[in-house]
Protein 1
Amino acid sequence: MKSNRLKCFALQMGFTALSAIFSSSNVFGQTKPNIVFIYADDWGYEDLSCHGSTFCKTPNLDKMAEEGMDFQNFSVCNPVCSPSRTAIMTGHFPARHSVHGHFATVQSHIQRGMPDWLDPNVVMLPRLLKEAGYTTAHYGKWHLTNFDVPDAPSPLEYGYDDYDVFNVSGRFPQMSADSTMIRTINFIEKNKENPFFVSVWIHAVHVPHYPKEKFLAQFPELNEQQKVYAAVIAEADFQIGLLFAKLKELGIEKKTLVIFSSDNGPENTGTEKNKNLDDNSTGPGLGSYYSVGETNGLKGRKRSLFAGGVREPFIVRWSGVVPSGIVNKTSPIAAVDMLPTFVELAGGTLPKDYKTDGESIVPAIKGVSFNRKSIIYWQWLFANKNSDFWPSLGIQDGEWKLLVNKEFNRQELYNINADWAEQENIAAQNPDKVKELEAKLDAWVLTLPKNPPASCFSSERKSMKN
């Protein structure tokens, strides 16, 4: 009897030990990876030299692509900042949270049917990772509210342990964008012994531009516009190089997953009048005249649902786990995939009452064949008839992408496997596919909220109703 009890105890201890091992491991049998998610601002798909830029130089991002995987069929879920970032944080298409455009003034939010900040009480990526044992931090741009909203929540209420940001409520200090990577590296040094998750949302290359002389000097052969833009890109690339050097110095590069992407396509180039921003802008720097980002032939730019507005660089590096030197142009992945992917890698769990709009891309980043099952949807409420900015709704289902605007009575269909740049509208040749996809779009729109959550209204908005 005593012998049996000892055997049972030994088995129990064995299962406990195994449980401990698996709880601190991910699907690759390694310890939970540190996760560094770098989200740039307004980068064109072609704004990397490894993506064919005609004038920018990005040696550190090029090296990152050589040492990892370069996914070239990644889409963000809105063609402007705040909603694109909402998708990362929530794993939902931003329209589900009534975040239709960038956060600005309260009056602007009312006019556009938006809340005054992203609801911190919904399921959040940093909170899930924190529950999985991660130390979490956010540095750089926030823009899940705006400086002009005086009573918006702190990033701490979204699940972050530490933060230093700009474009946050005016009741909090606004960090200098220049300190984003410095704060990131300091955080990593302090937390190198345990798993960490850090959002690094850099300012480049959003206006205003603040090119530094040391980087301008690298491009004497370029014209004025390209020189400014290339210098801003070069500084961002340099900062990313400092991050990788620190990971190597600390001996944790093999424990750290790093992803680089951007929130939407390149800004539309301004005229001579836009050289210097006026006092009503976000700062005193250089204006959109210098926003000369490239899309490598993709139709559209920022504020457009065409590929040039929503297809972004997506480079993944995790030494020893992610295959090196791989270009993946076929796996369709989306910003809403980040939450389920990171939670799986962290060994966390999704709440039972939560349903993501994305799916885990762990097989894809491991180099395994990935067949997307979920559909990608877009909503853009501020479409106009000008050029490539007319689509108000979009759907990507497998190889097919349909863009529509019922008010303008327009629709265009693309087979993105055959026409990656979305140049040939084949709607007329495929009426049944158009009808099928449009029905799915109509059904999705019916699931969206009619009004933003009142719990995310500022005191200023509430006082307007009294």
Protein 2
Amino acid sequence: MTTQRTSSVQGEDLLDGLEHLAQNSAAAGTSGEPVNVYEFDPTKDARWTELVARHPKASVFHTSGWLKALQRTYGYTPVAFSTSAPFQDLKNALVFCHIDSWLTGSRLVSLPFSDHCEPICDTAEELNLLLRHLQAAMEQRKWKYLEVRPIHGNFEASGDTMAFQPTAAFFLHRMDLRPTLDYVFRSLDKDSVQRRIRRAERVGLAEKCGRSDELLKEFYTLFIMTRRRHHLPPIPYAWFRNLIQAQGDALEIRMAYKDKTPIAAILTLQFRNTAYYKYGCSDKQFNKFGATPWLLWNAIASAKSKGAQEFDMGRTQEDNAGLLAFKNHWVHQPERLVYWKYPDSPALVSFDRWKLTTAKRIFSYMPEKLLTISGRLIYRHIG
């Protein structure tokens, strides 16, 4: 394997656009000719934005705005790999964040704190070329492991990817918004969803939507409350602030009020024809009013009015029976979502689960202020 350095010009300004597209590796294609793999920064390369805008496998998690929020909040380094040479349009790419932690090691994850991140490759051959390059570079680059989070189940069937091992499994709930809004509503569970939405309307809940500092503060107060119920520290406040700054109009906070008291909130994103429900939180003592289902339904109706054809409700762990039951009332047949690592071992996965169980016990005894500080300190290490 040979390695060389090359650079590319991006944008109108020659000096501002000069970048490293380093670490080209030779891999044999079907013709037997060597194929180079090029490394680049997706937050600075305009070709990445163009690829994400046009490719059917791209999601909100591929966008430069999402990557920049990860970088600003946690200090991760976004990096992408492609067989497309500099000065050529990108035809494929794998995007990662490089996490360099003194606590949990150096690794590539595609992508941390993201429900899924499909490899943007049109063929199994393209995917295998990129993965072989990364596997070969692991020892030299001192990466502990690689992790990918494909949304489609055909990853396992792609030849060389069999060296990857499944490390986590989830359910993914995605709602089809192409039928009429009335049809979508009638497809929801009558007792657990439709009835609760109508109850929220009867009790006169008020809703506020936007991205203001005031709304974010109210959202985060409820978010801390919800995470405490789950014995987990809250994600840093800076993450939400950076996400709002990076996503702009594509992000929306919806807050429900009962007699001017904030009682529930959700945060959604929209990219092309898909809307994403990413975060939800509530004050448990007001659950009887059905505020969260009401907010979700309002978000669905709003997204459909803006041209969305799909509502992605995100991943759910297999053992999270409560959340799984809640989402199953909206989407009756969820998909399987599997994360893959190279290399990995069942023993390591079991140990990680044990650590999480132990940590949740510790967090359950922490006062709110210490719990929030813990979130700021530890999340960058566990992405």
